[in-house]
Fold this protein.
Amino acid sequence: MCYAIPARVIKIEERFATVEYFGQKRKVLKDLLDFDIGDYVYVQAGMAIRKIPHLQAQSILKTWKVLFSKLKNQDESLINKSYSGLRLSKPYDAIIKKIDEKRRLSVTDYLYLLNGVSSDEGKFSQQLANRIRNKYIDNSCCIHGIIEISNYCVRDCLYCGIRKSNKKLKRYRLKLNQILEAVDYAVNSRGFKVLVLQAGEDAYYTKARVLEIIRKIRQKYAVLIFLSLGERSESDYQAFFDAGVRGALLRFESANPKIYSALRPEKKLEDRLKLIKSLKNIGYLVATGFLVGLPNETDTDILNNIKLTKKLKPEMYSFGPLIPHLDTPLASLKKIRLAKMLRVISLARIIDKKSRILVTTATETLAKPAKEKALSAGANSLMINVTPIDFRRLYDIYPNRRSRNIKVETQIARSLKLLYRLGRAPTDIGAQ
Ligand code: SAM
């Protein structure tokens, strides 16, 4: 199973190299791997992570070549589908004209796209976002794996099912050998090249323990590691980076400091943002974003969330709906509708044209065809849950998580089928 296209190295300059596949060139970082001009490498999130023997690379490329152009054609044909029949109002038309002419939109325009649009206009915005995705970043779609290593948490976030006050939840923590088994399965049996290790803020995972996990993974597996362990000291994160971690997934949750503090007791938005900025300074690829549908949140807040994510120059946007959990103080909150989530996704794409936007599991959990709709509204990234299934059910941040009972093989098969139908290449090759 292959989730990346081998790329040939054609130029090397200090920390960077230029690689090429099917005539497309990409600049990539080379600090995780030693290689020479002429070598074939797998690239994930703009980083070369693994060398591939020449013969193997050429055979994979041969298989890919036919599929690659077929997928591109399929993507083109879907985005060129006729817009006719959709009824658009004059104010909406005027906003679309501004976008076409690359003129600045006003806050009122953005808010109209977020909440003023009719159902036809919403559909038009999704198609437009999909065209923008195709035009600016083509049809690649990265598929990362996530392993949820512990559901212990010292925090008490009002929205989260694994908050420390939820005494009903059975807690678990994967042992080192269980983590390595999960990594082995994901990398060697299923071909994953990027893995996110996620947990609640669990004090058991001291700096030394996390370093041991990282070293053991790095010794045996050519995989790009993202950590999603919450707020830790800058020096911890520096040590993890030095040990070979290159990505961090840390949402700021809400750009509104009042909403943030109301939902995360004893925590301040400015500290979270300071940490996210430090991670970027260290050199991390940062995936970040927010929750949609928080109490007292306005559309202006949602717009500000998108704008703040863009300002943070993330490797990937990670945002999703808040899904109320019965054993939290937000049990009676109404979750947002998929239609609204699609507006947020398409607006994020309109605002940040070259971005990578993840279809989060929470978005998928909103309604059945959400994944397809989100990918057709500007999103271009997927995450597959590779946590051992018995533990996955216990990582109960919100109820009925979409893939909690589905075997990894099935998740992969379904995702690939969908991507091929939509003309997307399940690859991730280069950041620019
Ligand atoms: N401890 C890490 C942190 O603080 O980033 C990672 C674990 S935390 C559970 C991962 C994410 O789950 C949070 O950033 C939050 O946005 C999301 N989350 C928590 N509760 C949720 C809910 N009820 N619905 C949707 N997403 C939720």
